[in-house]
Protein backbone atom coordinates (compact mmCIF):
# COMPACT_ATOMS: atom_id res chain seq x y z
CA UNK A 1 0.00 0.00 0.00
CA UNK A 2 1.23 3.47 -0.80
CA UNK A 3 0.48 6.81 0.77
CA UNK A 4 -2.34 8.56 -1.13
CA UNK A 5 -1.15 11.07 -3.71
CA UNK A 6 -3.62 13.78 -2.77
CA UNK A 7 -3.52 16.00 0.30
CA UNK A 8 -6.80 15.37 2.08
CA UNK A 9 -8.84 18.59 2.08
CA UNK A 10 -9.99 20.32 5.27
CA UNK A 11 -13.17 22.29 4.54
CA UNK A 12 -14.89 24.85 6.73
CA UNK A 13 -18.60 24.37 7.39
CA UNK A 14 -19.94 27.96 7.33
CA UNK A 15 -21.96 28.52 10.52
CA UNK A 16 -22.10 32.24 11.37
CA UNK A 17 -21.18 31.44 14.95
CA UNK A 18 -18.38 32.34 17.26
CA UNK A 19 -17.25 28.74 16.87
CA UNK A 20 -15.62 27.43 13.71
CA UNK A 21 -16.29 23.91 12.45
CA UNK A 22 -14.16 22.12 9.85
CA UNK A 23 -14.31 18.67 8.31
CA UNK A 24 -11.34 16.61 7.11
CA UNK A 25 -12.41 14.54 4.14
CA UNK A 26 -10.77 11.16 4.71
CA UNK A 27 -13.74 9.83 2.74
CA UNK A 28 -12.00 11.13 -0.41
CA UNK A 29 -8.89 8.93 0.00
CA UNK A 30 -10.26 6.20 -2.23
CA UNK A 31 -13.76 5.54 -3.62
CA UNK A 32 -14.04 2.14 -1.93
CA UNK A 33 -11.25 1.97 0.67
CA UNK A 34 -12.46 5.12 2.31
CA UNK A 35 -11.60 6.99 5.41
CA UNK A 36 -10.05 5.52 8.50
CA UNK A 37 -10.17 1.96 7.13
CA UNK A 38 -7.36 2.81 4.72
CA UNK A 39 -5.12 3.96 7.54
CA UNK A 40 -6.02 1.13 9.86
CA UNK A 41 -5.03 -1.41 7.21
CA UNK A 42 -1.93 0.44 6.01
CA UNK A 43 0.79 -0.96 8.30
CA UNK A 44 -1.00 -4.26 8.90
CA UNK A 45 -0.90 -5.07 5.20
CA UNK A 46 2.53 -3.61 4.44
CA UNK A 47 4.04 -5.53 7.33
CA UNK A 48 2.39 -8.77 6.17
CA UNK A 49 3.50 -8.32 2.55
CA UNK A 50 7.09 -7.79 3.70
CA UNK A 51 6.99 -11.25 5.26
CA UNK A 52 4.63 -13.15 2.97
CA UNK A 53 5.86 -12.95 -0.59
CA UNK A 54 4.07 -15.91 -2.18
CA UNK A 55 0.28 -16.43 -2.40
CA UNK A 56 -0.76 -13.82 0.14
CA UNK A 57 -4.33 -14.00 1.43
CA UNK A 58 -6.28 -11.53 3.58
CA UNK A 59 -9.00 -12.92 5.84
CA UNK A 60 -11.31 -10.76 7.88
CA UNK A 61 -14.71 -10.63 9.58
CA UNK A 62 -17.78 -8.43 9.27
CA UNK A 63 -21.51 -7.99 8.98
CA UNK A 64 -23.31 -7.76 5.66
CA UNK A 65 -23.07 -3.94 5.50
CA UNK A 66 -19.52 -3.61 6.83
CA UNK A 67 -17.27 -0.77 5.59
CA UNK A 68 -14.32 -2.88 6.70
CA UNK A 69 -15.33 -5.84 4.49
CA UNK A 70 -15.80 -3.44 1.60
CA UNK A 71 -12.38 -1.84 2.19
CA UNK A 72 -10.50 -5.16 2.48
CA UNK A 73 -12.11 -6.47 -0.72
CA UNK A 74 -11.24 -3.32 -2.69
CA UNK A 75 -7.72 -3.28 -1.29
CA UNK A 76 -7.17 -6.91 -2.23
CA UNK A 77 -8.27 -6.08 -5.74
CA UNK A 78 -6.01 -3.04 -6.06
CA UNK A 79 -2.99 -4.94 -4.69
CA UNK A 80 -3.72 -8.19 -6.56
CA UNK A 81 -4.18 -10.19 -3.33
CA UNK A 82 -6.90 -12.79 -2.65
CA UNK A 83 -9.42 -11.96 0.07
CA UNK A 84 -11.81 -14.03 2.16
CA UNK A 85 -14.63 -12.49 4.17
CA UNK A 86 -16.18 -14.33 7.12
CA UNK A 87 -19.68 -12.93 7.21
CA UNK A 88 -22.05 -12.87 10.19
CA UNK A 89 -25.40 -14.56 9.51
CA UNK A 90 -25.86 -17.90 7.75
CA UNK A 91 -29.28 -16.75 6.56
CA UNK A 92 -27.74 -14.45 3.95
CA UNK A 93 -25.66 -17.21 2.35
CA UNK A 94 -28.26 -17.67 -0.39
CA UNK A 95 -29.23 -14.03 -0.90
CA UNK A 96 -26.05 -12.03 -0.56
CA UNK A 97 -26.30 -11.01 -4.22
CA UNK A 98 -29.04 -8.57 -3.18
CA UNK A 99 -26.76 -6.91 -0.65
CA UNK A 100 -24.82 -4.01 -2.26
CA UNK A 101 -21.81 -4.25 0.10
CA UNK A 102 -21.34 -7.97 -0.44
CA UNK A 103 -22.02 -7.93 -4.16
CA UNK A 104 -19.41 -5.17 -4.67
CA UNK A 105 -16.96 -7.07 -2.48
CA UNK A 106 -17.51 -10.18 -4.58
CA UNK A 107 -16.94 -8.18 -7.78
CA UNK A 108 -13.64 -7.13 -6.22
CA UNK A 109 -12.74 -10.81 -5.93
CA UNK A 110 -13.67 -11.57 -2.31
CA UNK A 111 -14.79 -15.09 -1.39
CA UNK A 112 -17.19 -15.55 1.52
CA UNK A 113 -17.82 -17.98 4.33
CA UNK A 114 -21.13 -17.41 6.08
CA UNK A 115 -21.27 -18.39 9.73
CA UNK A 116 -24.09 -18.42 12.28
CA UNK A 117 -24.32 -15.57 14.76
CA UNK A 118 -23.29 -17.94 17.55
CA UNK A 119 -20.20 -19.07 15.66
CA UNK A 120 -19.42 -15.47 14.77
CA UNK A 121 -19.53 -14.34 18.39
CA UNK A 122 -16.83 -16.84 19.37
CA UNK A 123 -13.98 -15.00 17.63
CA UNK A 124 -11.11 -16.92 19.24
CA UNK A 125 -12.34 -20.29 18.02
CA UNK A 126 -13.37 -18.89 14.62
CA UNK A 127 -9.92 -17.34 14.20
CA UNK A 128 -8.25 -20.61 15.20
CA UNK A 129 -10.23 -22.55 12.59
CA UNK A 130 -9.10 -20.21 9.82
CA UNK A 131 -5.52 -20.06 11.07
CA UNK A 132 -5.33 -23.83 10.73
CA UNK A 133 -7.02 -23.88 7.33
CA UNK A 134 -4.93 -20.99 5.93
CA UNK A 135 -1.61 -20.86 7.80
CA UNK A 136 -0.05 -18.21 5.53
CA UNK A 137 -2.99 -15.80 5.59
CA UNK A 138 -3.17 -12.47 7.38
CA UNK A 139 -6.21 -12.60 9.67
CA UNK A 140 -7.35 -9.05 10.36
CA UNK A 141 -9.58 -8.58 13.42
CA UNK A 142 -13.13 -7.26 13.01
CA UNK A 143 -12.98 -3.53 12.42
CA UNK A 144 -9.20 -3.89 12.10
CA UNK A 145 -8.34 -2.28 15.46
CA UNK A 146 -4.93 -3.44 16.67
CA UNK A 147 -1.62 -1.77 17.47
CA UNK A 148 -0.57 -1.39 13.81
CA UNK A 149 -3.97 0.08 12.98
CA UNK A 150 -3.49 2.74 15.64
CA UNK A 151 -0.07 3.56 14.14
CA UNK A 152 -1.65 4.08 10.71
CA UNK A 153 -4.04 6.70 12.11
CA UNK A 154 -1.11 9.10 12.63
CA UNK A 155 -1.43 9.88 8.91
CA UNK A 156 -4.81 11.49 9.60
CA UNK A 157 -2.94 14.16 11.56
CA UNK A 158 -0.53 16.70 10.04
CA UNK A 159 0.70 20.29 10.41
CA UNK A 160 -2.76 21.62 9.54
CA UNK A 161 -4.62 19.61 12.18
CA UNK A 162 -2.43 21.01 14.98
CA UNK A 163 -4.28 24.34 15.05
CA UNK A 164 -7.62 22.88 16.21
CA UNK A 165 -8.89 22.94 19.79
CA UNK A 166 -11.12 19.88 19.35
CA UNK A 167 -10.64 16.76 17.25
CA UNK A 168 -13.83 14.74 16.76
CA UNK A 169 -14.35 11.27 15.35
CA UNK A 170 -16.96 8.52 15.36
CA UNK A 171 -16.07 5.49 17.48
CA UNK A 172 -16.88 1.86 16.65
CA UNK A 173 -14.12 -0.42 17.88
CA UNK A 174 -12.00 2.52 19.05
CA UNK A 175 -8.81 2.14 16.99
CA UNK A 176 -9.27 5.42 15.18
CA UNK A 177 -9.90 7.58 18.22
CA UNK A 178 -7.02 5.81 19.98
CA UNK A 179 -4.68 6.87 17.16
CA UNK A 180 -5.97 10.44 17.18
CA UNK A 181 -5.48 10.56 20.93
CA UNK A 182 -1.99 9.08 20.68
CA UNK A 183 -0.69 11.40 17.95
CA UNK A 184 -2.48 14.67 18.74
CA UNK A 185 -0.93 17.68 20.49
CA UNK A 186 -1.03 17.94 24.26
CA UNK A 187 -3.37 20.95 24.29
CA UNK A 188 -5.93 19.41 21.92
CA UNK A 189 -9.17 17.94 23.23
CA UNK A 190 -10.25 14.66 21.71
CA UNK A 191 -13.94 13.79 21.52
CA UNK A 192 -15.04 10.29 20.56
CA UNK A 193 -18.66 9.84 19.44
CA UNK A 194 -19.71 6.32 20.33
CA UNK A 195 -22.05 4.71 17.81
CA UNK A 196 -22.13 1.47 19.80
CA UNK A 197 -23.48 1.10 23.29
CA UNK A 198 -20.41 -0.53 24.83
CA UNK A 199 -19.19 0.46 28.26
CA UNK A 200 -15.82 -1.29 27.92
CA UNK A 201 -14.70 0.97 25.05
CA UNK A 202 -13.03 3.64 27.18
CA UNK A 203 -10.63 1.20 28.74
CA UNK A 204 -9.81 -0.51 25.44
CA UNK A 205 -9.09 2.84 23.75
CA UNK A 206 -6.78 3.83 26.56
CA UNK A 207 -4.91 0.51 26.20
CA UNK A 208 -4.56 1.01 22.44
CA UNK A 209 -3.39 4.62 22.72
CA UNK A 210 -1.27 4.32 25.85
CA UNK A 211 -2.93 7.56 27.01
CA UNK A 212 -5.46 8.43 29.69
CA UNK A 213 -9.12 7.76 28.96
CA UNK A 214 -10.69 10.39 26.72
CA UNK A 215 -14.28 11.65 26.87
CA UNK A 216 -16.67 9.45 24.92
CA UNK A 217 -19.99 11.00 23.98
CA UNK A 218 -23.02 8.91 23.26
CA UNK A 219 -24.09 8.95 19.60
CA UNK A 220 -25.69 5.53 19.17
CA UNK A 221 -29.25 6.77 18.43
CA UNK A 222 -30.88 3.54 19.62
CA UNK A 223 -28.01 1.14 18.91
CA UNK A 224 -25.31 0.23 16.42
CA UNK A 225 -26.70 0.29 12.89
CA UNK A 226 -30.07 1.69 13.96
CA UNK A 227 -31.23 4.56 11.75
CA UNK A 228 -33.67 7.17 13.05
CA UNK A 229 -35.83 9.41 10.84
CA UNK A 230 -34.50 12.43 12.70
CA UNK A 231 -30.93 11.50 11.78
CA UNK A 232 -31.92 10.93 8.13
CA UNK A 233 -33.43 14.45 8.08
CA UNK A 234 -30.21 15.82 9.54
CA UNK A 235 -27.99 13.98 7.02
CA UNK A 236 -30.11 15.19 4.10
CA UNK A 237 -30.18 18.76 5.45
CA UNK A 238 -26.39 18.71 5.87
CA UNK A 239 -25.85 17.39 2.36
CA UNK A 240 -28.15 20.03 0.79
CA UNK A 241 -26.72 22.84 2.89
CA UNK A 242 -22.99 22.08 2.63
CA UNK A 243 -22.68 19.62 -0.27
CA UNK A 244 -21.04 16.93 1.87
CA UNK A 245 -22.62 13.45 2.14
CA UNK A 246 -22.57 11.68 5.51
CA UNK A 247 -23.18 7.99 6.23
CA UNK A 248 -26.00 6.82 8.53
CA UNK A 249 -23.90 4.50 10.78
CA UNK A 250 -20.99 6.73 11.84
CA UNK A 251 -20.41 10.21 10.46
CA UNK A 252 -24.08 11.27 10.28
CA UNK A 253 -24.57 10.42 13.95
CA UNK A 254 -21.35 12.16 15.00
CA UNK A 255 -22.20 15.32 13.08
CA UNK A 256 -25.75 15.57 14.46
CA UNK A 257 -24.32 15.29 17.98
CA UNK A 258 -21.70 17.98 17.23
CA UNK A 259 -24.50 20.34 16.14
CA UNK A 260 -26.49 19.51 19.29
CA UNK A 261 -23.44 20.16 21.47
CA UNK A 262 -22.91 23.52 19.78
CA UNK A 263 -26.53 24.46 20.54
CA UNK A 264 -26.10 23.35 24.16
CA UNK A 265 -23.05 25.61 24.56
CA UNK A 266 -20.67 22.69 25.08
CA UNK A 267 -17.81 24.29 23.12
CA UNK A 268 -16.24 27.46 24.41
CA UNK A 269 -16.61 30.62 22.35
CA UNK A 270 -13.92 31.12 19.74
CA UNK A 271 -12.98 27.45 19.56
CA UNK A 272 -11.99 25.68 16.38
CA UNK A 273 -13.38 22.19 15.90
CA UNK A 274 -12.17 19.57 13.43
CA UNK A 275 -14.41 16.60 12.64
CA UNK A 276 -12.93 13.68 10.71
CA UNK A 277 -15.09 12.38 7.88
CA UNK A 278 -14.13 8.73 8.21
CA UNK A 279 -16.06 7.62 5.10
CA UNK A 280 -18.60 4.81 5.15
CA UNK A 281 -20.52 6.16 2.17
CA UNK A 282 -20.61 2.72 0.54
CA UNK A 283 -23.18 1.79 3.21
CA UNK A 284 -25.80 4.28 2.02
CA UNK A 285 -26.99 2.06 -0.83
CA UNK A 286 -27.72 -0.85 1.51
CA UNK A 287 -29.33 1.41 4.10
CA UNK A 288 -31.59 2.93 1.45
CA UNK A 289 -32.74 -0.49 0.29
CA UNK A 290 -33.87 -1.25 3.81
CA UNK A 291 -35.50 2.18 4.19
CA UNK A 292 -37.30 1.78 0.86
CA UNK A 293 -38.82 -1.54 2.03
CA UNK A 294 -39.98 0.17 5.21
CA UNK A 295 -41.52 3.03 3.20
CA UNK A 296 -39.29 5.62 4.87
CA UNK A 297 -37.40 8.68 3.61
CA UNK A 298 -34.18 7.78 1.81
CA UNK A 299 -30.68 9.17 2.39
CA UNK A 300 -29.21 11.46 -0.26
CA UNK A 301 -26.13 9.81 -1.79
C1 LIG B 1 -15.15 1.76 11.09
C2 LIG B 1 -15.58 3.17 11.03
C3 LIG B 1 -15.45 4.04 12.12
C4 LIG B 1 -15.01 3.58 13.48
O1 LIG B 1 -13.67 3.30 13.55
P1 LIG B 1 -13.09 2.49 14.82
O2 LIG B 1 -11.63 2.57 14.64
O3 LIG B 1 -13.61 1.08 14.68
O4 LIG B 1 -13.59 3.13 16.05
C5 LIG B 1 -15.83 5.36 11.96
N1 LIG B 1 -16.33 5.80 10.80
C6 LIG B 1 -16.49 4.99 9.73
C7 LIG B 1 -17.10 5.54 8.50
C8 LIG B 1 -16.13 3.65 9.80
O5 LIG B 1 -16.31 2.85 8.74
TrEMBL record:
Any Pfam family matching the protein: PALP
Q: Which residues form the Tryptophan synthase beta chain-like PALP domain?
A: 17-279
Names of the cofactor(s):
pyridoxal 5'-phosphate
N6-(pyridoxal phosphate)lysine, modified sites:
37
From the record, what ranges are coiled-coil? Answer: none
| GO molecular function annotations of the record | D-cysteine desulfhydrase activity
User: Do the record's keywords include Ribonucleoprotein?
Assistant: no
Q: Which SUPFAM superfamilies match?
A: Tryptophan synthase beta subunit-like PLP-dependent enzymes
The UniProt entry, under InterPro entries, shows: ACCD_DCysDesulf, TrpB-like_PALP, TrpB-like_PALP_sf
Q: Which residues form the signal peptide?
A: none
Q: Which domain of life is it from?
A: Bacteria
List the keywords (alphabetical): Pyridoxal phosphate
Question: Which family does the similarity line name?
Answer: Belongs to the ACC deaminase/D-cysteine desulfhydrase family.
What is the protein name for this chain? 1-aminocyclopropane-1-carboxylate deaminase
Instruction: State the organism named in the record.
Output: Chryseobacterium koreense CCUG 49689
